Request: fold
Amino acid sequence: MKYILLVFLVLFSGCSLKDYDKTQTKVIIIKSPQIKFSDLGYLRNSEDRVELELFIAGKSIQKISINHLVCVSDGCMSKSGFNEEYLNSSYPDELLQNILLSKEIFNGENVVKTDNGFEQNIKNLDVDISYKVSLHVTSFKDRKNKIIFKIKDTNVK
Reply:
């Protein structure tokens, strides 16, 4: 019985370990039909995982973890399910992860390199997006769906 318990602990405790390569404190602004937030947050990431922990007055109020699923306090769901429930169903599955990591969205569509980052403007029947990434600020605005993400380093005014 001891050995079965030991094997069980070894197998399932590996899934719960969350070692992230990078942790950063950011000013986070999120505005969507389901989420409204403006305060500090921790952005943690490793090669294949991203976690955004949101705080208000020093108290953790929400944690969004992304790997092959997106997990929030309500449970885990597919990336497309998260987009449908919290953002917009027309968004690509990797959109939130790419915004949090300041990577190109929509497979690099309309990307224009700038001195310290890039910009993308994407407009079609479903979206009207202005996305800008610079050294200290990432800004995503979808005018059509009224969704905003702004992620700033804490030392930027």
Q: What stands out?
A: The longest strand covers residues 22-31. The longest helix spans residues 2-16.
